[in-house]
Please model this.
Amino acid sequence: MAFPGNNQVSAPPDPLAGDPTLTFAQHLGTGSFGNVALYLRNAPGLPPEYVAVKYLPCRQVDYNLIRREVKSHCSLNHPHVVLFKRLGLTPDRRFLYMVRLI
Model:
């Protein structure tokens, strides 16, 4: 599956490199709070799927803001809004990440 708009922005190091179910595909962008990347999710027993992963350095995380974002995102049901799948910490516990189905 090809994704247009690869603008060759330099990608930060992959914080999810230690997760065997997620394979880095492409850096999608950088915002004021963190980065978003495209990953191929290979969960056991499920078909492979592309997911967008937003990851933020834990030292910069406002947990109230994250809680509100997750709560509002879970209540949305629209074809132009990606579905929220999972919230977690990277294996080294330096980054908080959010997985969304594309």
Summary: The mean pLDDT is 80. Residues 27 and 37 are 4 Å apart (CA to CA). The two ends are 12 Å apart (CA to CA).
